[in-house]
Design a protein that fits this description.
Blueprint: H1 2-21, H2 37-42, H3 53-60, E1 82-109, H4 117-124, E2 135-166, E3 172-182, E4 185-195, E5 205-207, E6 212-222, H5 223-228, H6 232-240
Parallel strand pairs: 1-5
Antiparallel strand pairs: 1-2, 2-3, 3-4, 4-6
Amino acid sequence: MIRDVTAVLGICLCVSACARFEDIGRAPSFSDANDGNEHAAMIYGGLPPVTGPSRHVDRASLWSAGRGSLLGDRRAMQKGDILTVVIEIDEEAQISNQTARSRTGAEGLQIPQLFGIPQRINDELPTGATLDNAVDISSNASSAGDGSVRRQEELTLRVAATITQVLPNGVLEIQGVQEVRVNFELRELLVSGFVRPEDISRKNEITYDKIASARISYGGRGQITDVQQPRYGQQILDVILPF
């Protein structure tokens, strides 16, 4: 059993190492833009165009309500349309807490005249010992605590997202992927969530705080990220070792 587990672990490590060897000496490759929900939504044919006399009248009118007209609404509202997501996160939180506690107590018990018992016992006690002050207890305790938390985050990004689905209630499901490669480091920005059509501005933009179930990920992969990550052996030991 132990040999089987060791063999499986060795195979996994070899496969992971081979995947890492592929990026040695070259920049990480981009993901295929033709894969994913965005591309599938863009090639969606949608409903067939309206035909008939009303369509010809609409084309001849200067005040057409269509999206291609001068005054038409060109905001994203259909599957495959593109809108801009504005991410401006500037948050700062500071918490400070300070507590102090002090307590002093003293107790004393004297029995100099207790039916003459202390006098009889004092004669048999060593020199200097007496029962006059039978019990004398004093205590002093104090504690103090001081804690503070400070957090500051700032992120400003803009990414184009695609409507991948229009839900039955009219809510739009969006997804956006952006990849930027600088030398041997690839930065990835992923945005997904649900938006209401009325929250999209006239500039065809929407801020991140109006996206329900928002998922925003900004990271990267490449040489810099690889160096910052601990080795596989260290990660395994961190999980196994209890101390």
